[in-house]
Amino acid sequence: MEADLKSGNSFRAGMYLLENLTSGMYNDPLSVYREYIQNAVDSIDVMQTTQTVHRDEQLMITIDIDPREKSITILDNAMGISSELAEGILSGIGISEKTDFRLRGFRGIGRLGGIAFSDRAIFRTKAKGEKVESVQEWDCKGLRTLISQFRENPLSIAQVFERTTKFSLNNSKLPIESYFEVKLYGVSSFRNYILDVRKVKSYLKQVAPVQFNHVDFPFFNQINHYLASNLNHYGSYNIALNAENIYKPYHERVKLTKGGTDIIKGIKLFEINNGSNGTLAYGWYGQRKDLLGSIIKGDDSSGIRVRVGNIMLGDAHLLDGCFREARFNSYLIGEVHVDSNELIPNSRRDDFIDNKYKHIFYNGIEKEIGLLLSKEVRSRSKIKSDFNKFSSSQRRGIDIDEKKETPLGPTGEVNTTEAGESALKKADQIMNNELHSDFTENGLHANSKNPFSDILILCCNGCPNLPKIIEAIIKE
Predict the structure, then answer these.
(1) Are 181 and 37 members of one domain?
(2) Is the pLDDT of residue 184 over 90?
(3) Which range among 11-20, 159-168, 232-241, 415-424 shows the weakest confidence by mean pLDDT?
(4) Distances from the Cα of 355 to the Cα of 334, 358, 453, angstroms
(5) Where are the alpha helices (DSSP H) in 273-400?
(6) 388 is a domain residue
(7) Which of 101, 121, 282, 344 is the most buried (most CB within 10 A)?
């Protein structure tokens, strides 16, 4: 007869788990800012739905970096935590009361991010109506020492907490009614990117749920209206870095890798369905005037980005695999805002948890955006190539008489060179206005051996001399 299974709980958690949730979790030091920001905006959301916020009360997140002192301060004036609950919440790991999928920080580990990159971390918080603040202090340097000595002196997580943290209630010194403040001292990281104000600003512009720049990006109203009308929850927030307001990196004009610029002439709105009657995401992308050449990386806007709770998931290359060529994603600007509790970010927030909806989402992106835009990029490139070849062969040594209405030779025959030049001008207009998008969408040049002749058909349709013009071009 088999022995009865032992009753009771034999599972244990050691201090290495704490290491995995701090330095082991964040391969990019800058992601620390994202973790604290997502907790702050969740607090702002809760405050706006549960309390009356006065019109003159601006809810805000401020980040102050002092590279000389190697310190970082992140402060929000939202809900805060009451003194009654603070110790339990601040001491909890992997415990969160956030059950609404619209809230971003739901695993209860984001607060640990800064511990991996600082010698000392202090969390201060106060709820509205209270006079005392709750303070928890971490000896992060001591924590790392204990972890390094684990083989000689193994400890449980509870024992580590007792040796490296302390909690207290103090009189509040900040003038605001409620707040949550993170202060990190002795901050350092690989190449000290975490203290590089320029790199942090670039990171926040792309990742944080900040507002569009109303001056530089004229399509902000159209996008905000569309997203607010369709998403279950959509918000943007006031975030300042060293007293400078941060905005998303989008502009009406984009810089190109090979030099020059291109214009965003309009916005295309779209949605990604879940395969039945629901929608997984809503998004937008900018319609470029020429769509020739990729957007320079330093522009901070290239690539269609995935956002959950208006916070970027992964990086600018997360959707590269949805295009015929990965580089085609860098030709575009845009966002995909997830609106489904079936698409769950993983702990690192660099992708989704693997399930069937993840596959439906990526397949939908490929079908609705990736394949169509890949085809258009290739088409534009092909047309431009044919345009350049024709231009170089036809324009050498030719003096165009723009006043001549009928390009006929001295014998009354078609002057194909001059007629070709006239058609070339019209073709050039197609390359630089709305007619070109109509041309590519109608597929007039699909599988054509001579796409340039198709351009002539589009812009010179009805001209009695068109067949001779095309014949002359083909022969050339």
Answers:
(1) yes
(2) yes
(3) 415-424
(4) 25, 5, 48
(5) 356-365, 371-394
(6) no
(7) 121
Query: Do 27 and 113 reside in the same domain of the chain?
Result: yes
Residue linked to tokens 């995995």: 20
Bridge partners, 266 (sequence order): 287
Question: What is the sign of the dihedral through the CA atoms of 228, 341, 333 and 253?
Answer: positive
Q: Residues of 45-78 as b/e, b for ≥16 C-beta within 10 angstroms?
A: bebeeeeeeeeeeebbbbbebeeeebbbebbbbb
Do 232 and 361 sit in the same domain of this protein? yes
The pLDDT value recorded for residue 171 is: 93
CA distance 300 to 291: 18
Q: Do 74 and 35 lie in a common domain?
A: yes
Q: How confident is the model at residue 158 (pLDDT cuts 50, 70, 90)?
A: confident
Domain span holding position 141: 15-195
Q: Please state the rounded mean pLDDT for residues 310-333.
A: 96
Dump the DSSP string for 56-111.
T---EEEEEEETTTTEEEEEE-S----HHHHHHHHT-SS------TT-S--SS-GG
Beta strand ranges found along 111-228 (DSSP E): 120-126, 132-139, 165-171, 179-185
368 class by beta-carbon count within 10 Å (0-12 exposed, 13-18 middle, 19+ buried): middle
- Those residues whose C-beta lies under 8 Å from the C-beta of residue 316, and which sit 6 or more positions away, are 206, 302, 303, 305, 329, 330
What pLDDT is attached to residue 2?
44
pTM for this model (two decimals): 0.79
Q: What pLDDT sits at residue 28?
A: 86
Give the mean pLDDT of the chain.
81
